[in-house]
Automatic annotation (TrEMBL):
UniProt protein name: Transposase
Origin species: Actibacterium atlanticum
UniProt superkingdom: Bacteria
Taxonomy of the source species: Bacteria, Pseudomonadati, Pseudomonadota, Alphaproteobacteria, Rhodobacterales
GO biological-process terms attached to the record: DNA integration
The Integrase catalytic domain, residue ranges: 53-91
Pfam families to which the protein is assigned, alphabetical: rve_2
GO molecular function: nucleic acid binding
Length: 109
């Protein structure tokens, strides 16, 4: 999905844990080809996942705990729409000077 967006490649990061699919030669080759900034969590470093854990807490608090969906597909669409329709383009972040992620990406482009 990141490759299909019109964001500057220099702003695209890939931070993963050390599971085999992320360490594979094929996956790493794709990231290098598209000039992703690549990082992996350190062995036994529980703080490496703090940012993504914060994201999951936020999506649960702002979306999941407020709604109930009849099907898994409906939940998947709601999460997709939340991320791409609100979280990235509209939600303001103190770490970004109270700007949205999309505003920061657009300004950097």
């Amino acid at each position: 999905m990141a490759l299909s967006r019109l964001l500057p490649v220099c702003l695209t990061n890939s931070h993963t844990n050390r599971e085999s699919q992320y360490c594979s030669h094929y996956y790493q080759k794709i990231l290098r080809r598209h000039k992703f900034k690549v990082s992996m969590s350190g062995k036994g470093n529980c703080y490496d996942s703090a940012a993504v854990e914060t994201f999951f807490k936020t999506i649960k608090a702002e979306l999941k705990w407020r709604h109930h969906w009849q099907t898994r597909r409906a939940a998947e669409l709601a999460i997709f729409n939340y991320i791409n329709g609100f979280y990235n383009p509209c939600r303001k972040y103190s770490a970004l000077g109270w700007n949205s992620r999309l505003a920061v990406d657009t300004k950097a482009a």
